[in-house]
Amino acid sequence: MKKPSVAITATKESPDAERSTSKKMLAMTLTDVEALYGTFRAVNKVSLDIEAKSVTAFIGPSGCGKTTLLRTLNRMHETLPGASVKGKIEVGGTNIYDPAVDPVRVRRSIGMVFQKPNPFPAMSIAQNVASGLRLSGAKSKGSISEVVEQSLRKAALWDEVKDKLDEPGISLSGGQQQRLCIARAIAVEPDVVLMDEPCSALDPLATLKIEELIEELKTRYTIVIVTHNMQQAARVSDTTAFFNMGTDRGGYLVETGPTTKIFTNPSNKLTEDYIAGRFG
Amino acid sequence: MSRAEKTPTLIDFSLTAHDIRRRRVNQIMLGVIQTMAILAVVPLVAIFIVILSKGLPSLSVSYLLNAPLAEPRGIINAIQGSLVMTGIAIVASAPIGIAGGIYLNEYASERVSRLGELFIDIMLGIPSILAGLFVYFAIVPLLGHSGWAGSVALTVLMIPVVMRTTQEVIRLVPAGLREASLALGVPQWKTTVFVTCRTALSGILTGIVLAISRGLGETAPLLLTSQSSNDTAINLGQPMSAMTVVIYQNATSSDPQIVASAWTTALVLFVLAFILNVLVRFRTVNNRVV
């Protein structure tokens, strides 16, 4: 069985010469990150870099730990009973797993959008978007209603809901609900937005809208997306990391690199097999 | 080749004697079940008719508002007593019940949670006279036969109702909502209060209405604790009447006027219980999905 490989930083190998210096900034650096449920190691040592203001995709077959790893990035994994994380994740020079760091603060800067849209049913559309601001105590730049409008515009939802901001959040369609969740996540002005298979519960038209949205959002936020859909990863991401399940049923990182390279000329045979659809 | 040669053998669908017997058995059983259902409803309809016919003649606004010893007599002491004691009991039991239900579901470990549930279910099933007996033994020596003692007895009976209902509705709140809140950087306690409880709010309110309904209907524990009084001033340190107790005491009296007051009190109680029940049903039907 192949040993987990150390990742190559995408930027240094990037053939994209026009990349400006600001894009070479790293938003997050993972070093030997492991995720456990009790004693079971769901994710084996992963080391990789997440580039700022770009889209990084985690792909791989079911059960290879992509979602588990994603949830370690904003300290959500440990909210499950018995779950723990080892290793280091550095954001802006600080290890977010340092004992002195407050996980609640981490989650304000690293937001998450889930697979199944989950707007708060007891709140209206406007209240949903504002909920992060109101409840987490984050300071807003403008008034609440201004932030609500801005976030809904950034999430490409404003035109569709501007006349019904007081209607319940759950009265929208699936795709709209997901964009509402995205608006809610970006209303607290995070640096990173994590997306766990955001389109898997949506129809193709809604999926297309969200993919277009991701393309716009990456100019402002760093995005890490877990997806089962290889073609989606090829469409939206700049960097792709391929994971696989080992014989111990734990996931490990096989290869990571610029999306174009991973999909046309991967270094690892396993990657090539997965891309070609020979397994997974 | 003519078609007649290729005709397949038909299945015989005609009625046999067995079928006819089966149909008759079906009809008999249906009749039996319908009769049983009607029988089940008869007592309720009978109660309703009897209470209405016996209680309505004496019913008037002055009857409701007058003291039992005034001329003409009234039942204000009973109505006040019930409302006051149930009111105090719900103010005490609602916070305890809600907090307990939240704790069991959100913060307690699996084992503690299951033990807690078992305990509440036992508390729910306790015959109310035992609660009265407990308060008679433990509280009455300290506070005497009083409105306070009656309120304590009702509280003991109402806490499990609120706690159980709260726990059930909070459990129905999808985990995805809690996760969404935590992922926004909202602290755990705010998630519990402003997301989980807010979503389950209507169910929690239903639990409170159910508890009030129970409190208004209890007789035995009040007989042992608050007993009764003809006083119209609300004096919690003294024995206090309640509608249920008044019905019990007055129904067997030799004075027809006093008996009439029992019936009228019964009517008021019945109407109150009916309204509360309809309220609960209305809330439950409309808010079935959290």
> Helix and strand succession of chain B?
HHHHHHHHHHHHH
Radius of gyration of chain B: 27 Å
Looking across the biggest beta sheet of chain A, what order are the strands in? 6-7-8-3-9-10
Category by helix and strand content of chain A: alpha/beta
The major beta sheet of chain A can be summarized as: 6 strands, mixed
* Mean pLDDT over the full residue set of chain B: 87
Describe the protein.
In chain A, strands 6-7-8-3-9-10 form a six-stranded mixed β-sheet, with helices on both faces. A four-stranded antiparallel β-sheet of chain A has the order 2-1-4-5, with helices on one face. Chain A is globular and about 55 Å long. In chain A, helix 4 (125-136) runs parallel beside helix 7 (174-186). Chain A has a single domain, classed as P-loop containing nucleotide triphosphate hydrolases (Rossmann fold), CATH 3.40.50.300. Chain A is α/β, with parallel strands linked by helices and 280 residues long. Chain A contains eleven helices and ten strands. Chain B has one domain: MetI-like (MetI-like fold, Orthogonal Bundle). Chain B is built from 13 helices and no strands. Chain B has helices at 3-6, 17-55, 61-65, 76-107, 110-125, 128-138, 140-143, 147-171, 175-183, 188-217, 220-225, 243-251, 256-286. The chains are: A alpha/beta (280), B mainly alpha (290). At the A-B interface, helix 3, helix 4 and helix 7 of A face helix 9 and helix 10 of B.
